[in-house]
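Morning F.,

Quick status update on the modeling queue. The single chain you submitted on Monday has been processed. Sequence for confirmation:
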Amino acid sequence: MSASAALETPAVLPNGDVLYEVVNGQVRELPPMGAFENSLSNYLNAILDTFAHGHQLGRAYVEMLFLLDAAANLQRRPDVAFVAYKRWPKGKRVPKTAAWHIVPDLAAEVISPSNTWNEIVEKIADYFRTGVQLVWVVSPATEQVYVYTAPNANRILNRSDTLDGGDVLPGFMLPLAQLFGDDAE
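Structure tokens below.
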């Protein structure tokens, strides 16, 4: 087994279908998302993937484990992620590994009751440190989306606003009333 393959697989993995991340070589089990939060992440993924694939920009993924930094053994699992074809060519198969060794262009986190703000801030910092260009933090409780273009640069969108893809997903527009509305089930 190569050194990079060893980094991709922690020595002790959670049992069963438990989702996890690896931070500083330590496995962290992820608590399950609430049903509403899960429906939001799936809806966001469906809208993103349909747009991105339809416009030949890339693909979106739900809860994909990414090996963001092999040297630090940092593996993160955003609730939704977008990978541009510029980073991973169209038609190239995703590798058959526990974690995909690529940094997504966009990472989205949907805040669940089990999340802490410290966890979210740590993830935002990790994403930008490793090359993610855009981070969306979706707050179902307040019906807001925090749009980060850097760890210390964000804007807050409310239900009446429209989320856009910026330079990462040019032309992407999603009215937040649609995301948080009844039709997002």
